[in-house]
Amino acid sequence: MSFASAQFLCFFAVLFVLYYLIPRRHQWKLLLIGSLFFYYFAGWYCLIYIGVTTVTTYLAARKVGDLQREQDTWLKEHRAELDKDQRKAYKAAGKKLRWRWTLACLLLNFGILAVVKYTDFVLSNVNGVLSAAGSAAQLPMADLVLPMGISFYTFQSMGYLIDVYWGKYPPERNLGKFALFVTFFPQLIQGPISRFSDLSQTLYEEHRWDSQQIAMGGMRVVWGFAKKLIVADRLAIPLRELVSAPEEYTGVYVLAVMFLYAVQLYADFTGGIDITIGVSQMLGVKVAENFERPFFSKNIAEYWRRWHITMGTWFRDYVFYPLSVSKSVLKLHQKARAKLGEPGKRVSVYLCTMLLWFVTGVWHGASWNFIVWGLLNGVVILVSQECEPLYAKFHGRFPGLKGTFGYRLFEVGRTFVLMSAIRVLDVYRDVPLTFKQVGTIFTSFNPSVLWNGSFLELGITGADWAVAAIGTLAMLVCSLLGRKEPMREQLVRRNPNVAWGGCVVLVLCMVIFGIYGIGFDATQFIYNQF
I want to staple 229 with a disulfide (CB 3.0 to 4.6 A). Which of 141, 274, 361, 514 is the partner? Predict the structure, then answer.
């Protein structure tokens, strides 16, 4: 049940009315029932996967919490009888036992994710090796169906379990409430990846009718639908045409793919997140922001602090930091520094960074294009860090340059071009083909297609291009003006009539210019595949 579908609109309308009619103490129960019903539309078998993750994580966290509480109680009762070394040994033994329970649950759930998402990828690579070796034998594909949102709810659940193991908060004792945390329907399709300590603050509360919050959430939902239906789905048409015949569309067409996909993905992904946050706000639930004007970033490291924020912080907190302080990495750091001197200090940083981006690429998809995409991001970030002394020398020689509008514009443009170029791997889905296509930018640029009408043969008319351009410009203006405060909040505070008028105009634009099919169902959101 895509957000951009008639089914979802009907589903949410019924849920919304019931939510504020029933006794408030039962609201979270209605959300749980609604979330399970929503997930059922992805296939009844998907409920088994998310059910296993929910129950095993709940039980493992309960066990880890109980073991911690038992340890604390025992130490308090026997503190006078133990010396420092005995207390330390007892704590270490308790931590080891808690880690075993945590690790078992992590292996089970990440194992499920790995099997359903990566089995065919592994089998296809084995078959490739067999073919290269001259063998006619081929392993059959498993063709496992990927449950909707499995990467998102698995990461969210495992983050909760790790936090409980680290003692950040006690485990949730109510299975129903924890199930709601895992299955909360607005964030199942494409995130964000919420933290229990944040989402639980409003997820289980009793919510009164709040006209202002409902209105603000509704405005954000309308803005999200507008980005999706007017811009993202319109640009998807020429992109499909450009990618369908790569041998025909080379040179400047590849540049078009780079920039069109950047805009389409942004409109699609942020549009979906706007709907997620807006729907949640209408229900009184606060969901974490996932974007912070990423296309205004001055380098790729900053870009990834602004794009898909909850995914980036998840990998940082649960992969990069634990890995960088692990015994193996610390031992490697000491050996590298002893043998290589000062440069050896950076070996462990390089290793952890590249492992982080390898995992990030694998998370995005079971194919080599995503793996290369992730590794390229890591390489560019490391190269940028290594060039910092050169940047410092450059700015020392030209002190008046840094901070000027022109130089900031250059940095932003450079980052946008770099990210767009790397992301082409996501479009062509084939590593050699992607590099071949990018190479044609320099070998067969053919700029005449920019003015000879060729772009009008890509499935949309000149009017469609104008609508997409106006929509893109509107997103840019809203980002610029919403730097300190979102545009809708500024309008509501200064002139509510203008704000509501703008919503009416957006709805009319969606009706007139929106790209949708029978039953007003739009194309699926891009990040739903993850």
Answer: 514
